[in-house]
Amino acid sequence: MSDAKISSGLSRRMFMTASVSAAAVMPLVNSPTRAAQPASAKPAEPRDLSAVSMRINKQTYNLALDNRTSLLDALRDHVGLTGTKKGCDHGQCGACTVLIDGKRVLSCLSFAVMNQGREITTVEGLASADGDLHPVQQAFVDHDAFQCGYCTPGQIMSAIGCINEGHAGSEDDIREYMSGNLCRCAAYPNIVAAIVQARDETRRA
Amino acid sequence: MNQAAPAPRENQGDPVVRIDARLKVTGQAGYPADIVTANVAYGALATSSIARGKVSELHTKDANAVPGVLDIVTYGDLDKTDMPKFGNTGASSIGPLHDKTVFHDGQIIALVVAETFEAAEEAAMLVRADYEDERPSASFDSKGVKMEPAAGKSPMFKEDAKAGDFDAAWADATVKIDEKYSTPTQHHNPIELFSTTAIWQGDQLTIHEPSQNVTGWKVELARQLKLDPANVRIVSPYIGGAFGSKGPMTARTAIVAVAARRIGRPVRCVVNRMQAFGTQTYRAETRHRIRMGAGKDGRITAFGHEAWEVTSRPDPYVVGGTSATARMYDYGSVLTHVSLVHADRNTPGYMRSPPETPYVYALENAMDEMAVALGMDPVEFRRINEPEKEPIGGKPFSSRSLIKCYDQASEAFGWSKRDPRVGSMRDGDWLVGMGCATAIYPTAAAPCAARVRLTADGEVRVQCGSHEIGTGVRTIAGQMAAERLGVGMDKISVEMGDSALPPAPVSGGSISTASVCSAVMKACDAIREKLFAAAAGKGAPLAGSANAKLDLKDEEVVTETGKSAKLADVFKAMQVGAIEEYAEFAPKGSSPEALRKLYAGQSEFHGGENDEDSVKYAFGAEFVEVRINSYTREIRVPRMVGAFAAGRIMNTRTARSQLIGGMIWGIGQALHEATEIDQRHARYVNRDLQDYLVPVNADIKQVDVILVPEIDHQVNPAGVKGLGELGNVGTAAAVASAVYHATGKRIRDLPIRIDDLIG
Question: Do A183 and B658 touch (CB under 8 A)?
């Protein structure tokens, strides 16, 4: 769903209350963990809270969330993991990129309730407990692949996705497959160099 | 070493890794909207849907009925506060909730506060207004705009620069250029959204908001809310991109603070991307007419630069870049004039190199046109017009390495391989074009305070209320302390972005490195004095050594002759555990009140063209290759080379990154960025990151930066010229020149898009 297609004056969230909420609770109905279903048989109202359970950075969270709550807002405002950033809330900047079951996803365009039972990885889940940085994080440090650092968590998660997908074969590929992540400080050449380094290290590992 | 860490040349500091790099790659850097706050309520703005008129009635019933809504702050609710002021600290004099007058589209009409973000957004959409609307004037060509001379309307722009007899020189010139140029409306669009979190504890107010001016905001917010500034604190330790947008405080900050006081809870308002276009500042559109006359020898005899800038109805915001263009070359005569055009728009504000980006774009385009008219190489044409002294006041440059920049950049770029004939260079289906342009940015500094503490264990804490907007100033301040105190970077911690710290000036005008480093240096030098006096004192480890000959290295006091004493032993001799020094730096020529004004949140800039002894500028030369598809007219920029001389470079890593970022901003200005305006409604149309185009990774290929060594002791004690805004000056003109070289089409109105090159 692209916000640009919604006429002005009707926000994304209004639009959702009007038409998407039914779809939003679908995963709950199909969910293997039946405990997450609303107690009542009547269809959920947009403003209702739904129970949702997901694994975030290898830890289980049981949450009661407004059906309209995005995964991004759930992470930031309800779980307290603020490493994932909001830059547009419209799926246009990539700052909110997380991994869902290993694939990169824009968390602002994913309702939290759609992620029942899923495995979410955020930037906070990358560095190991002993303090070693993930190869992509280390490469971003080595190549100064950021300035203000705000888009960085999204860039890093997206870079991991890009390498895993096999889209980091050439520098041109990296540029293309990282173009959903805007960097207004424009550290792009450094981001490409960092991903090349991380890709090579990941391959050697 | 990789490309990100250039080997330092003369007068350049090590490419030290950013002190906050680990925090930034692990998601631990706390930007203002990240601060976890108990019991926080969420705010959402409702904004006007007309650009001119009055709100006759506001309807909040439906909004109030949304479950979870706690309060709606609107007209009347700010009556006990003072109106915002336009000026150094305040973005605009428009107090949107003080007065039902609507000055621009997207003006705040209410703030809804609710238990959840979702409820706040839903309710804000249900706030409706009835208006007595009038036909708005959108921009230059609209009926009803008011035009006035800019000179004297703002303390930033006192007079139009002129020199010699332009009219006579213009009449006599052998070769003449008389052309018009324009630059569009642009919005900063930092990726971090604008936000305010207000927390009251009794009479004490803490604001978490991304800010480039925490001390200024503290004082201004206290004024608006009628509080003692000592009871207001602005906290902004990490800023997610600013580019000027977070320099002036907007009306929202006080509104959110009022809301938090009314409901007795913290309130967080994160402004959505769309609403930011109307509630924050922006770079206004500009128009230029340049008349340039030259002799056959290539010497410019007449330079005329007239310009027009858009601003809001009430505020005379002016950038007036003629102050730089009039001093760029050795013109025989200069005539400039800047006009302000008041329209029904929000007040513009500074955006990365505010005067230079649009004005130098026009000048450098004209320079390329004149070089073509003269049949002269564009680099040679600039060399011929290199001045001994600036033409307006006849003052010398404190240093000027422009020609060195041209030499080094043109060699690295391979300019000599350029065939000057238009359309002569081709690679398959791609037309190749090459262009160049000059970058210039005034070097200034402002009063700044810093506190530095050194412990017997060699731990150093630097405190300064400056702002880490991505420039690396936190790292550089730490580097300065590490160097002066002879400890490793692992021993350094740097606190910034908090109005409770020693005050620093606004982080604008590329003054931070010079101002902060000069203050930190002064504090460190006071610590050195104390240590040296103790180390050389009677019975002390280095008794008898002259203070002046001592230094600090590797946590030791060392003498010229190789004797040394451990820091811990010197502290032991002094019988203290830590030395802490508070220092105030004021640039040469500061007024007697400059330091007092620092604490009052006012930054007194010195430098640029305003000093008595010399004019102070940093320079650069940028070379760009463009490729234009001969069938589709798609424009690509496969490579750019920029050489820059900016005095002492504190850290080659952060300097290079900033300059790369600036040059890429220049590509954005040349080819992408423009806020489109609905002329009927004076409304921004492309209010999001999908339709407001900025460069993405795939738009950028090779970007090379050369840091040209330069030593300048006149600029400030640190010898530093700022370079955060230098990189994106001139770039767009270099691109435009390259497009001309490839296609023969001279595009004078930015941005240059495919449709400009069809037909």
Answer: no
pLDDT tens digits, B100-153: 999 999 999 999 999 999 999 999 999 999 999 999 999 999 999 999 999 999
pLDDT higher than threshold 60 for residue B10 = yes
Is the CB of residue B555 less than 8 Å from the CB of residue B564?
no
Closest CA to B561 of B537, B541, B540, B545: B545
ipTM of the complex: 0.97
Strands B492-495 and B460-463: parallel
Q: Which of residues 366-425 of B touch A (CB under 8 A)?
A: none
Q: What is the DSSP letter of A113?
A: G
- Residue B677, number of CB atoms within 10 A of its CB: 22
Q: Within an 8 Å CB–CB cutoff, is residue B526 touching chain A? A: no
Q: In whole angstroms, what separates CA A119 from the centre of its chain?
A: 11
Q: Does any domain span residue A178?
A: yes
**CA A152/CA A150 separation, integer angstroms:** 5
Active-site residue flag, B132: no
- Which residues in chain A (1-60) have CB-CB distances under 8 A to chain B? 2-4, 9-11, 13-14, 17, 47
Contact between residue B624 and residue B734 where contact means Cβ atoms under 8 Å apart: yes
A-chain CB neighbours of B125 within 8 Å are 10-11, 13-14
Bond before B751 cis per omega within 30 degrees: yes
Residue A75, in any domain of the structure: yes
**Beta carbons of B216 and B160 less than 8 angstroms apart:** no
Predicted TM-score of the model (pTM): 0.94
CA distances from B680 to B142, B200, B283, B604, B735 (A): 9, 43, 20, 41, 32
> Taking Cα atoms as reference points, which of B379, B367, B394, B345 lies closest to residue B161?
B394
The fold for domain B445-605 equals Aldehyde Oxidoreductase; domain 4 (3.30.365)
pLDDT in tens, A106-165: 999 999 999 999 999 999 999 987 789 999 999 999 999 999 999 999 999 999 999 999
Given 1.10.10.10, 3.30.365.10, 3.30.160.20, 3.10.270.10, which CATH number is that of B35-136+188-279?
Answer: 3.30.365.10
Q: Write down the residue that tokens 């391959």 correspond to.
A: A203
Q: Which two tokens stand for residue A146?
A: 């950021």
Cis-peptide into B717, omega within 30 deg: no
As a whole number of Å, the CA-based R_g of chain A is 18
User: Can you read off the two tokens belonging to residue B38?
Assistant: 């108990």
Q: Is A169 part of any domain? A: yes
Which listed CATH number (1.10.150.170, 3.30.930.10, 3.90.550.10, 3.30.365.10) goes with B1-30+395-443+608-759?
3.30.365.10
Estimate to the nearest angstrom the gap between the alpha carbon of B532 and the chain centroid.
39
